[in-house]
Amino acid sequence: MTTDAARSTVLTNIGMLVTNDPGAGAGPLGLIRDAAVVFDGGTVAWVGPSGTAPSADAGHDLGGRAVLPGFVESHAHLVFGGERAEEFAARMAGHPYAAGGIRTTIEATRSATDEELHANSRRLLAEALRSGSTTVECKTGYGQTVGHELRCTRIAASLTGEVTLLAAHVPPPEYDGRTDDYVTMVCAEMIDACASEAKWIDVFCERGAFDRDQAHAVLTAGMARGLIPRVHGNQLGQGPGVQLAVDLGAASVDHVCYTTQSDLDALAGSSTVATLLPAADFSTRNKYPDARALIDAGVTVALGADCNPGTSYTTSLPFCIALAVRDMHMTPDEAVWAATAGGARALRRDDVGVLRPGARADALALDAPSHLHLAYRPGVPLITDVWRSGVLAYSAARPRP
Ligand SMILES: N=CN[C@@H](CCC(=O)O)C(=O)O
Ligand SMILES: [Zn+2]
Which residue among 54, 125, 261, 386 is least packed, with the fewest CB closer than 10 Å? Predict the structure, then answer.
């Protein structure tokens, strides 16, 4: 077992390799049977048939198992205090989900110590790694004051380079009935204070949260400070989120459960990714997005787990793949692509979500002969090994990280 990123490692006897490089193998997933991969330090050095693999300092025989690029989680809320199991139970008893539930977590987050927030977010990041996520975006959004958002942004930045300032998640209680004043404060103070720690700016554009003009003001203020927009939209009903995301050239619009034909047309003619979050729809009994209509219209689709304590307390992209196939009518290949290359597109990255020379050496192995088993065997812990930047960061054969 190799844990040293400075050395080269050859993975041999891979039954089925997903490269996501159509030039390297069959179909959009670039599938290669009986394959090998060489990692040199933190990058992929070689990909091809097992028999022709170059030698390396160390070897890892996969015994016919499948290997995929590490999952790219492009939607996660990992910095928060408390949990909302009671709200989940009430929902399962028939209470609807509403944006206001976010305030419960704002209160718990503001009350939590830095150490508690660090420990909880690191625990969830390690959980995501065990589920195969090797790149993880992380949002703030449960502070909603300058000081608390700055604290949460710094904690997120200690976990990942993909930090999203979710400056406008829901108007906090002290701004009750004064959402415009909150937006003014965000644009005048919060974004200035937090921008240097973040890459992305995000808004929840939805009934009960922020309307189109308010969301536009926050996103453009973020863009003026160098942040790239992404949007939570069209989760709970039809709304302006999709169109706003496209108008501003956002990297992604997330949820996208309720769409009109003009939303589909706008997305199809844009570079904005539709990031679908089926675990949130599962846990809120919400309508699933029409993934088939999106894909058939030519929209780029990503899958995210949306880990958060309200709507989706899971870090498991394998679970989302299974939901996407069973309930959103994506093919297993489409779902696997969306959780790897699709997530990379949503984060505007070309070095992850793909196994080709020069890419980051992020991969996972399954206790299964092909990637199809991710949807075919729902709920089964199939992931045996996860490499991040060439290092074996998780192995089911070893104690957990
Ligand atoms: N939709 C908005 N934000 C989260 C939910 C947050 C919460 O309920 O705490 C989401 O992505 O689902
Ligand atoms: Zn979210």
Answer: 261
Residue in this structure with the two tokens 């922020």, named with its chain if needed: 210
**CA distances from residue 290 to 37, 103, 113, 171 in whole angstroms, order as listed:** 36, 29, 41, 29
Amino acid code (one letter) for 115: E
Tens-digit pLDDT profile for residues 101-148: 899 999 999 999 999 999 999 999 999 999 999 999 999 999 999 999
Reported ipTM: the value is: 0.97
| Burial group, residue 176, by CB count within 10 angstroms (0-12, 13-18, 19+) | exposed
In this structure, CATH architecture of domain 72-346: Alpha-Beta Barrel (3.20)
* CATH architecture entry for 8-70+353-395: Roll (2.30)
The CB of 308 under 6 Å from ligand 1? The reply is yes
Domain ranges in the chain are: 8-70+353-395, 72-346
Probe target for ligand 1 pocket from 311, 314, 315, 320, with the most ligand atoms within 8 Å of CB: 311
State yes or no: 310 annotated in a binding site: yes
Q: Residue 263 is encoded by which pair of tokens?
A: 């939303």
Please state the pTM of the whole predicted model: 0.97
Residue type at position 303 = L
For the record, the structure tokens of 90 come out as 């009430």
Distance between Cα 165 and ligand 1 center (Å): 14
Instruction: Measure the CA–CA gap between 261 and 195, rounded to whole angstroms.
Output: 35
Q: How far apart are CA 51 and CA 57, in angstroms?
A: 17
Tell me the torsion sign for CA atoms 116, 117, 122, 128: positive
235 is in an annotated binding site: yes
Residue with CA at minimum distance from ligand 1 atom 8:
310
The answer to whether domain 8-70+353-395 and domain 72-346 are alike in fold is no
Whether the CB of 286 sits within 6 Å of ligand 1: no
State which amino acid sits at residue 170. Answer: V
